[in-house]
Amino acid sequence: MAEQAQLLRPTDDEARELARTLLRSARYMSLGVLDPATGFPFVSRALTAIDLDGVPVILVSALSGHTKGLKDDVRCSLLAGEPGKGDPLAHARITVFCEAQPVSRDSAIHQRIRARFLSRHAKAQLYVDFPDFSFFRLVPIQASLNGGFGRAYALTGKELIFPTATDESSWLELQNDLIEKTSEAAKFAQRLGLGDKNWRFGLVDPAGIDLVSSDVLVRHEFQHRLDLPEDVIHYICK
Amino acid sequence: MAEQAQLLRPTDDEARELARTLLRSARYMSLGVLDPATGFPFVSRALTAIDLDGVPVILVSALSGHTKGLKDDVRCSLLAGEPGKGDPLAHARITVFCEAQPVSRDSAIHQRIRARFLSRHAKAQLYVDFPDFSFFRLVPIQASLNGGFGRAYALTGKELIFPTATDESSWLELQNDLIEKTSEAAKFAQRLGLGDKNWRFGLVDPAGIDLVSSDVLVRHEFQHRLDLPEDVIHYICK
To answer: How many beta-carbon pairs under 8 angstroms link A with B?
Structure first.
């Protein structure tokens, strides 16, 4: 998609890990859709969370431009990875082409996605149940990782996601239980060398877990995939 | 484009000023183009400067995905306005639909745009003259300003730009002269209440001027339009 083949580096494990971390740790991303009225690419900002299989999810109003775009044409893209200090182009970022899947409010997955989104963005509680708001899953098709000048990689969508966990309801239970475990969150944050803040756990999946404190989000990727909720409990309490 | 008419507030001077400031003070923006191979909207990050008439300019490599998109279809959009602390959606941002105009290296305006871009992004000196790099002017067509929850406005492209200054060569001379005036920049920064840094002047036009210190950029909008370079000298040295 983005770069000529001769400019791309071979995609290795390090590139894949950087790509996943950028995508999964972003509190918000730039979202590009096709504007139905004009055909222009329309770029806006959206809060993002990650579904249980690693697919990015957004919560949007039916009245907004991006939602109209996604309803008209499922093709969209996400840009993740915010610059810190220094040259903005020296900071890693990833563009992911996605296909949008609307999440119906009465579908089996709505409850899970709602819980996961709110575990990352507590303030969205104020509007998540408004009738004009709904979730979309943005399923990665292909991606272009830019790790800084001259460090471009192409990835497939499959390299960014993972199979859905087998027992979804037990993951939802874990998700809901973790919010209360603030003393465990504080200990886990200390193990990770994070500063002393009012940490709580945010969203969790077989690949990693969020630590959240007010508007600070730290996504921790597990050292290896954890297939069962009890593996996660063991990992964070060991 | 973005919001239903009934959600839009009437566009007043305050909204126009916010829109212009967001666009003109952004060191970088999210750029959306149409990917020629797939038709997907492709969002990436680009360093930005502002031409003498307020039109955003970018410097891009012919090998990059966004350049291929712009050469194939001039329709693009820019998202400006970075979130600070707190809820990312509470921070103002603007989406501008633009039409891309390539700037040929042998055109009359290339020298001006090159000088203006480098006055904002000194490090681009390293690659600005590489044969595969070139400038595009992204001419605003229409815009959607989001000043935070429930504060949406529509703007025309003309509300974001202004007539080109009459004597372009004297503005280029001013642009080149200002880079050296670091003691005046320090005094002007002090008048604006900015902290004590190694300030220098960056790009200048009839609407405002940049103060730059390493990777910090502060765009100051003049209280009224200054039609002549000597008006600017008087304004910053008074």
So the answer is: 144
